[in-house]
Write a structure and sequence with these properties.
Length: about 160
């Protein structure tokens, strides 16, 4: 499996969230390299790294979900359900305690595929609502949001 790169096609119009998506994708790419180069054992990856990564992803989901309410995004329930299902599925795989290379590679491929698939479909559905909400802000709030790396119009 080749590295996956974040491209503008994956942008959802919110700088802070785009930046986290880039980070998540590059982190999983990096973990795959570390595993292949034996810089990280399968055991450490399953017991420590992936649960830690899931905590970060959980925080990331909370940020996304906080914007659903403020932007009248209509697919909120389904979207939140996808987030929960992903975390549950990942922790179920982690709970199997399978550390061999093939299983670890499978776990990382699952994370990477899910992230790219989710960002390019479900998260992209948010974009028009996020961009519209940004346009409704006063110039001062737009500046404040931009400085806080939150909203910025995508186009
Ligand atoms: Fe999402």
């Amino acid at each position: 499996m080749h590295d996956v790169k974040w491209t503008r096609d994956l942008s959802i119009g919110v700088v802070g969230i785009d930046r986290q998506h880039k980070e998540l994708i590059s982190t999983v790419n990096r973990l795959r390299h570390m595993l292949n180069e034996n810089e990280l054992s399968g055991r450490d990856m399953v017991i420590k790294t992936v649960p830690f990564l899931c905590k970060y992803i959980e925080e990331h989901f909370k940020l996304e979900e906080s914007l659903f309410t403020t932007t009248d995004y209509p697919h909120k329930t389904d979207h939140i359900e996808q987030h929960r299902a992903f975390l549950n599925e990942t922790m179920e795989i982690v709970g199997m305690n399978r550390y061999d290379k093939a299983c670890c590679e499978e776990l990382l491929a699952f994370l990477l595929n899910w992230l790219v698939q989710h960002v390019s479909t479900m998260d992209r559905l948010c974009k028009p609502y996020f961009v519209k909400a940004h346009r409704r802000l006063s110039p001062l709030k737009r500046l404040a949001q931009w400085l806080g790396f939150l909203f910025i119009a995508g186009e």
